[in-house]
Design a protein that fits this description.
By secondary structure, the chain is an alpha/beta fold. It has three domains: 155 residues, Spo0b-associated Gtp-binding Protein, Chain: A; 168 residues, Rossmann fold (3-Layer(aba) Sandwich); 70 residues, 2-Layer Sandwich (GMP Synthetase, Chain A, domain 3). Helices cover 22% and strands 22% of the residues. It has nine helices and 18 strands. The strands form four sheets. It has a six-stranded mixed sheet, with helices on both faces. Strand 17 and strand 18 form a beta hairpin. The protein is elongated.
Length: 426
Amino acid sequence: MFVDVAKIYVKGGDGGNGVVAFRREKYVPRGGPSGGDGGKGGDVVLEVDPNLSTLQDFKYKIHYKAEKGEHGQGSNKAGKNGEDLVIKVPPGTIVKDAETLEILADLVEPGQRFIVAKGGRGGRGNARFVSSVNQAPDFAEKGEPGEEKWIILELKLLADVGLIGFPNVGKSTLLSRMTAARPKIADYPFTTLTPNLGVVDLGPERKSFVVADIPGLIEGAHEGLGLGHDFLRHIERTKVLVHVIDGSGFEIDPVEGFYKINEELKQFSIKLTEKPQIVAVNKMDLEESRKNFPKILERLSKEGYEVLPISGATGFGIKDLINKIVEYLNREKDKEIHFEVPEEEVKRYTFKKSEDIRVEKGGNIFYVKGKVVERLVAMTDLENESAVKRLQRTLKKMGIDDMLKEKGIKEGDIVKIGDAEFYYFE
């Protein structure tokens, strides 16, 4: 089974809690605070594994959580950091935020890594809060929650050559002739429902190349008709396109079909029309194809296309087609080809800055939103009076009080920050 899209949940490990502790030694009657910090939570890391070719494993497991950091201990002992969770993905995987559909990463190179969900930092122990005005702090921080979100993994085949064309023009037969691939072949539209890959072995002295049989396209493919979006995405990765047309014209006029497919490519992405195309007129073992070939050649060669007659059934012209593909690939090799998504399109998932804090009102409840302030509250031990007082001072310094007053808050109203609720009093 070929699976090229998967939706999974990832969560970085929570940081371990800092601890409240004081030195208790025989000859140190008034030992100071000695609570250690919690360990950092593990990250969720995506890593490219060249041995993988599908996203099939993600059909059976969709929740991935990294290890939590251990809590701190007395005697200033820090907790152990949580282990990172490394998830293997095939080359050509694009990572998107499932909520915003923003592209987070484009994973192409073997061994390439991307931290998709960061682990939370460990909470600070009470020894870290000693100051000139508080020599014996009796509070510590809780561990920071790890980042969590749903992501979409989308696989785009990494092939040198893409075979495109209408259903039933003979792409799968051609692939089997060119390579050792053995795709299932039958005589009806949409025989191929998943892309097939094959390697053309040119011998020890010449570099082989990978061919992808892209399932047949139809009119409206750019709008998603006939699984169009699922198939068109794979063409984006290829360097050269071989446009296979049925020379017999039994189902559709060969030239008319050629233009319709190119229009679908253009509507999906203008970049697809910029890729070099070789036109392979298939089924030349049929008399109708031989009659139609001169007209096809005259029409398309005028527009600068390389047009070659072939027969997937008999093997006629296959060697010439392979040589022409190699010629085109050598030309493309001299060009600088990048598969990576432009940096401005790649959104790194990070906590928002304090400037993004906002207050929203709903009845007598005031919602304070923003990753920084929500994290601050989540790391505060709300059962500890000293910790709560410190939180109040910090929120005031951040300007939260002023923002609430601007929204018209009154004593007794409820303030909600993350999962915590507070009553407002001056």
